[in-house]
Amino acid sequence: MSDTEQQSCPRKIFLSRDTTSLALGAEQVADRIRASEKHRGEDIEIVRTGSRGLFWLEPMIEVDTAAGRVAYGPLPIDQLDETIESLLDADCLAGDKRHPLCLGLTEAIPYLAKQQRFSFSRVGVIDPLSLADYQQHGGLAGLHLALTMSAGDILAVVSDSGLRGRGGAAFPTGIKWQTVHDVDSEQKYIVCNADEGDSGSFADRMLMEGDPFSLIEGMIIAGIAVGAQQGYIYLREEYPNAHSILKQAIASAEAQQLLGNNILGSSKHFQLELRLAAGAYICGEETALLESLEGKRGMVRAKPPLPAISGLFGKPTVVNNVLTLAAIAGILTRGAAYYRDYGIGRSRGTLPFQLSGNIKYPGLIELAFGPSLRTLLEDFGGGTYSGRPMRSVQVGGPLGAYLPAAQWDIALDYEAFSQHNAVLGHGGIVVFDDSVDMAEQARFSMEFCRIESCGKCTPCRIGSTRGVELIDKICTDGCSANNMNLLEDLCDTMTHGSLCAMGGMTPIPVQSALQHFAEDFSKQGEQDD
Amino acid sequence: MPEISAEIEQNAALLEIIDSHKALEGALLPILHAIQQRFTYIPDTAIPLIAQQLNLSRAEVHSVTRFYSFFRSTAPGKHTLQLCRAEACQARGSRALEQAIQQRLGIGFHQTTADRAISLEPVYCLGNCAASPSIRIGDTVYGGMTIERFERLLSTLAIPVVEAQS
Ligand SMILES: Cc1cc2nc3c(=O)[nH]c(=O)nc-3n(C[C@H](O)[C@H](O)[C@H](O)COP(=O)(O)O)c2cc1C
Ligand code: SF4
Ligand code: FES
After folding, report:
1. For residue A225, which phi and psi values (nearest 5 degrees)?
2. How many distinct structural domains can be found in chain A?
3. Ligand 3 centroid vs B145 CA: distance in angstroms?
4. In-domain check, residue A118
5. Shortest-distance Cα residue to atom 4 of ligand 2
6. Which of B84, B123, B140 gets mutated to test ligand 3 (max ligand atoms within 8 A of its CB)?
7. pLDDT value, residue B160
8. pTM to 2 decimals?
9. What integer is the mean pLDDT of B80-86?
């Protein structure tokens, strides 16, 4: 490229617009760059992307160079004026590496380089609302392929890939789709579960904010495979940024004939509607979600019938998590074997883990199943944020176990976790240092269940209330054998007598805390001695 | 009689919202969202109107409205502040922050400050766990929250919250 050519096109700065980057000041960065651009008379284009998921480096900017994107960060919000000026002075736009905030080539940053980004390959790279960007990075290839395939062939690829649902229950996606396909019905639905209620989880959000077309593409392919022409995305209300990005993405997909009648000129039709939830955790459970979509209270339905047979408005319905659906197009284009070759045992492919809490390097880490939890905590996470010893790690959301150091060598694999009475769930990992009070954590698990229970069954509704009281009693009266037996019995009743995993799994964090951190439950007792 | 005409106006606005959504499958939640967006809460008068238009009983509409914590039956303060109480925020000190903010505002959860500047609500994860503790004001999420930052936030947002009585 000649000099004149280079000057004629504005130089680009890539900057994330995902919720966490914004929470860390990305918008101030954008404003400041625009101000500098003006008074320097430079022509800079700010491309807003999703986040790479290296959150301790946000807000971070990237620029294009011949060798790839070069990153600078984290930009200190309280010294933004000087920082932006010094970056521009140092010719950061050309990727000059001498600035102290220069992180080198983004993709060579070890945290990113060590990952296997499959579902998140475009997140943080492209403008989430540019369909052109999406296509340049491999988007829509899966849909084009699907439009040439028979339903049976698509179902076979999904089955052969070994993909299991990423919403927590890890049910084989191919079997679910096949079931919906096989039911004879005029009307079928594809429902995307974007309720992402698990604390410590943000992968669905990052994907919807960073690569929404991959979700839309996955839903259309699901529709083609099972014979459904209507889709819904059920999005939690707590995600206003994802809501606005998805809304725009759907509108532009409609404008480009990706959605609607005769998709891309074919004979297939698919309509997609975005629906907002209203702050109930239980509506992440698929049958409560369907009730909510129908305009009712989010009460869990008894199964059977499975939603695949009688789901939304009694029609056959695929309910899949965001990450499950977003993996589909990539699986079709790269083939079932490519995906299946990642992972171990029955856990095939990759899982985007989310590392947060008291951790030095929080972020999104997409890896093939198999490495140990410790790899994430130490190699990626770099220890605690506070610098104090790490003591307890909750994996898999509010219904997941608290794991002590002795269990950090468990492999990240659905079956290995369940052998230890733990769950991988949606891949959220929350780290606590040694200042944690595990009795407080156990109490919170019961309290959360009490607040969020749909109220349909007694073990969950009443049990959680009793659970809070009992843990309070244990903390004040000490761990008498009687109190402990009562709590064990209560957990047992909840585990076996609850209709769904809300009441059924709340005992998991409680019992893991009791089992591995018993000393925290007798503090008061000790003082009394 | 200005009150009566205000009521008529409100009913007309409600009916318009209901009418423009009622053809949707499972229209109730979209209708409630649209009403709350317009009025900041679900006015009591909306319940019979919705029931009539959707062919539901008032009790049904009422119970749905009450089931979802997001829908409120009274007007909130000028700003709604959601404070995350979930685990990733706990791990970074949200329990202490919760106490400090409640003390600073002089209110507990589900309450509104005397000057009606802020309504405080609990929330269980904002998806901002990697920069916890998190709060949300309106549609903006703030991370790495401390009581000092919160104080500065109040002043930059020009939220005039009465000093808590000591
Ligand atoms: C209490 C509870 C909450 C749940 N929350 C979610 C959620 O927020 N997101 C999700 O995808 N799945 C959630 N699930 C799992 C869903 O019921 C269901 O298994 C999932 O949406 C199926 O999609 P998948 O096969 O792609 O995982 C939850 C389950 C329970 C019991
Ligand atoms: S276990 Fe709890 S949330 Fe699940 S159906 Fe029973 S009461 Fe509802
Ligand atoms: S746990 Fe507070 S934002 Fe996720």
Report:
1. -70, -40
2. 4
3. 12
4. no
5. A500
6. B84
7. 77
8. 0.96
9. 98
Q: Which of residues A339, A370, A393 is at a domain's end?
A: A339
- Asked if A276 and B123 come within 8 Å (Cβ–Cβ), the reply is no
- For residues A276 and A365, membership in a common domain is answered with no
Domain boundary residue among A339, A372, A399? A339
Angle B147-156/B94-105 helices, nearest 10 degrees?
A: 40
For residues A447 and A470, membership in a common domain is answered with: yes
Answer whether B76 touches A (CB < 8 Å).
Answer: no
The answer to whether residue A401 is domain-embedded is yes
**Residue A46 and residue A35: Cα distance in Å, rounded?**
12
Tell me the ligand closest to A322's alpha carbon. 1
Give the nearest ligand 1 atom to A173 CA.
25
Residue written as token pair 């101030």: A28
DSSP-derived letter for residue A432 is E
Q: Residue A84, SS3?
A: helix
Q: Over the stretch A253-281, which tens digit does the pLDDT of each residue have? A: 999 999 999 999 999 999 999 999 999 99
Domain annotation covers residue A373: yes
Q: A327 and A184, same structural domain?
A: yes
pLDDT band at B163 (very low <50, low <70, confident <90, very high): low
Q: Which residue owns the Cα nearest ligand 1 atom 25? A: A165
Number of A to B CB contacts under 8 A, please give it.
Answer: 157
Contact A296 B64 (CB under 8 A): yes
**Domain span at residue A93?**
3-113
* Contact B35 CB / ligand 3 (< 6 Å): no
Classify strands B118-123 and B111-112 as parallel, antiparallel or unpaired. Answer: antiparallel
A319/A373 same-domain check:
no
The complex's ipTM works out to 0.96
* Pocket probe mutation, ligand 1, options A158, A164, A190, A193, max atoms within 8 Å of Cβ: A193
Whether residue A120 lies inside any domain: the answer is no
- How far apart, in Å, are the Cα atoms of A53 and each of A50, A168, A202, B108? 9, 21, 10, 34
In CATH, what number is assigned to the domain containing residue A455? Answer: 1.20.1440.230
